[in-house]
Amino acid sequence: MIEKIVARAQSNWTKAEGPHHHIVLSSRLRLARNLKKIPMPAFQNETDGFTVLEKVKNAAENLGYRGQEKLYFYRLNEIPALERQILLEKHLISPEHCEEGGNKGLLINGDEAISIMINEEDHLRLQVFSPGLQLEEAWQIADQLDDALESELEYAFHSRTGYLTACPTNVGTGLRASVMVHVPALVLTQQAGRVFSSLGQLGFTARGLYGEGTEAIGDLYQISNQITLGQTELEIIQNLTTLALQIVAKEEKTRKWLLQECPFQIKDRVGRAFGVLQNAAILNSQEALNCLSDVRMGVDLGLLKEELRKLNLCELLVLAQPAFIQRYTGRTMAAQERDGVRAELFAKKFR
After folding, report:
1. According to the 3-state scheme, what is the secondary structure of the chain?
2. Which residue, 232, 255, 278, sits at the end of a domain?
3. What are phi and psi of 4, to 5 degrees?
4. How far apart, in whole angstroms, are the C-alpha atoms of residue 228 and residue 172?
5. Is residue 25 domain-shared with residue 145, that is, in the same domain?
6. How far apart are CA 95 and CA 223, in angstroms?
7. Minimal CA–CA distance to 124: which of 170, 69, 70, 177?
8. What pTM does this model have?
9. Please, is 153 exposed, middle or buried when counting C-beta atoms within 10 Å of its C-beta (0-12, 13-18, 19+)?
10. Which residues neighbour 218 within 8 Å (Cβ) at sequence distance 6 or greater?
11. Of 66, 88, 105, 237, which is the most buried if we count CB atoms within 10 A?
């Protein structure tokens, strides 16, 4: 299964569907869980790490026997570095989990809607992905899977504080709900910084394309809750859904304003981005994502041919990444050669 996953740009979250998918590209729920009486990954020895791997692997196998979603188990050190990087580029593992060392594992289902990191910061990081704004739908899957795993595993849980986690900010529900939003109009009008800087007062935060510590590229941001203690899972999800709808409304209003007040500038920006993707001889990943952002906005505003909707721009975000380019061509390349191959590939797509 892993060979199929790293060979395709498609993933469950890249589907161009779901409510408000023109701005909210995807929804993700992540649950942090630890096993009782076993040291957390930062303090475990080799034996502890192996014990966690085996317990989780056996639990997943038992779920399969009971008719649950089939999950495929992999030890991370058995997956080549390039393929681990592709898993990161597809958001299926974290930057920390991608690094070598330790008894790290992965459970993943066939369509990549479910990904469970084993021995990351916590023993379990259970992730569920959905395209568009579908946090409640993702929660139904995550909640059912979490209950099924808890019937097989003994979680570290305190009656007063809730689930115990490596980072204090995850204690309680252990839930991180997030949405990936595409907000080129807010960035272009310099409203994004003001909007996202105010999120902390509401208990949310905005991060870059690959989460904490990463920068925003292509006008893409991940917005997630900061508070996991003192709120129920449904309250967290409902609050984030409300916030996402507000951002959607603000982005839509700003796009209409740009089209009315600055039509030639917007058409020029979109046209130049489209021209670069069609004709560039060298194209690095950052420039590709920035051009894709403008083209995506142009398609949504009706400034480019309707046929371009057939090109899934979310999948192209994955296709533009360095590791995926190398896997696509079947060889390891230096950065400059990758930039040439990327330009050639995108020229074929957009012509």
Report:
1. CHHHHHHCCCCHHHCCCCCCCCCEEEEEEEEEECECCCCCHHHCCHHHHHHHHHHHHHHHHHHHHCCCCCCEEEEHHHCCHHHHHHHHHCCCCCHHHHCCCCCCEEEECCCCCEEEEECCCCCEEEEEEEECCCHHHHHHHHHHHHHHHHCCCCECEECCCEECCCCHHHCECCEEEEEEEECHHHHHCCCHHHHHHCHHHHCEEEEECCECCCCCCCCEEEEEECCCCCCCHHHHHHHHHHHHHHHHHHHHHHHHHHHHHCHHHHHHHHHHHHHHHHHCCCCCHHHHHHHHHHHHHHHHCCCCCHHHHHCCHHHHHHHCCHHHHHHHHCCCCCHHHHHHHHHHHHHHHHC
2. 255
3. -70, -40
4. 5
5. yes
6. 18
7. 170
8. 0.91
9. buried
10. 182, 209, 289, 290, 292, 293, 317
11. 105
Q: Give residue 188's Cα distance to chain centre.
A: 23
Model confidence pLDDT, tens digit, residues 81-122: 999 999 999 999 999 999 888 899 999 999 999 999 999 999
CA dist., res. 105 & res. 112, Å (int): 15
Among 198, 221, 255, the domain boundary falls at 255
- The number of CA neighbours under 13 Å toward the Cβ of 200 is 4
Check whether residue 132 and residue 102 sit in a common domain: yes
| Choice between 312 and 220, residue whose per-residue pLDDT is larger | 220
Assess whether 195 and 313 both reside in one domain: no
CA angle, residues 240, 249, 195, in degrees to nearest 5: 65
